[in-house]
Specification:
The chain is of the alpha/beta class and about 250 residues long. The chain has a single domain, classed as Spore Coat Polysaccharide Biosynthesis Protein SpsA, Chain A (Alpha-Beta Complex), CATH 3.90.550.10. The chain is about 45% helix and about 15% strand. The chain has 10 helices and 10 strands. The strands form 2 sheets. The protein has a 7-stranded mixed sheet with strand order 3-2-1-4-8-6-9, with helices on both faces.
């Protein structure tokens, strides 16, 4: 009888036939390099009602596929987690590429016993002044909170203890998840950790679509609209995340 995997990597995906293959190439390399053996890592693509070949690509690449109809990224992540069997759950977006040392780096962080979970951090596939300034806006938040993005990870038992991702949130569900994980860690003297020796490479497609300075145009407008109508977040989420041009 085979032992359960050490890791379950969950990839939420909607119409990702262009980006998913390159992510899976990077995952295959990281699995090959993992000192625990590539069989210790299962890969799950959580397909969010794609209309392209995304689920077919996942199956062709020997990934498990979890089908999730609800158009909320939190529900998609949870849908992948529900069929996962690994001791450690990890989550990354389909337009990223993970570092070859990802799984070893996460193991090293968790082996200390001082981390409740965390993230690897990320860098961009291309840079410009606008992208660098946007990135710089996020750095103080990372330093102050310990929260980051890239490959987010935690132990399965802790994921279940905090109830996974909050499906009532259509945006910032990742922030809420890490805050809940951090609160849990504090009860045991643990913190969020950054395995930043294994940063992911993030796609610049939002910058390609909206412009390299778009955060500085869109976010003030969103903040002003929220003062008038708190429901404006939903409209923004639909436009920016849930109705992508792909």
């Amino acid at each position: 009888m085979n032992a359960p995997p050490r890791f379950s990597l969950v990839i939420p995906a909607f119409n990702e036939e262009r980006c998913l293959p390159r992510l899976l190439d990077s995952v295959d390399e990281a699995r090959r390099r993992y000192r625990g053996g590539e069989g210790a890592i299962e890969v799950i693509v959580a397909d969010n009602a794609s209309t392209d070949h995304t689920p077919g690509i996942a199956r062709e690449r020997a990934c498990q596929v979890a089908s999730v109809e609800m158009r909320a990224i939190a529900a998609v992540r949870n849908g992948g987690a529900r069929i996962a069997t690994g001791e450690i759950l990890a989550f990354t977006d389909a337009d990223m590429r993970i570092h070859p040392a990802t799984f070893d780096a996460i193991d090293d962080v968790l082996a200390t016993g001082r981390a409740v979970g965390g993230a690897t951090g990320t860098t961009m596939e291309r840079w410009s002044l606008g992208i660098a300034m946007t990135f710089a806006l996020m750095v103080p938040l990372v330093w102050l909170t310990g929260m980051d993005t890239g490959v987010v990870f935690c132990r399965r038992k802790d994921f279940e203890a905090i109830g996974g991702y909050d499906e009532s949130r259509r945006v910032a569900e990742d922030v809420a998840f890490l805050l809940a994980l951090r609160r849990l860690g504090r009860t045991r003297g643990q913190k969020l950790a950054r395995a930043n020796a294994a940063k992911t490479i993030a796609s610049a497609r939002k910058f390609d679509e909206y412009g390299d300075w778009h955060y500085f145009r869109l976010m003030p407008k969103l903040a002003a609209r929220l003062l008038v109508d708190p429901r404006a977040t939903g409209e923004f989420a639909d436009q920016y995340w849930y109705r992508p041009k792909r």
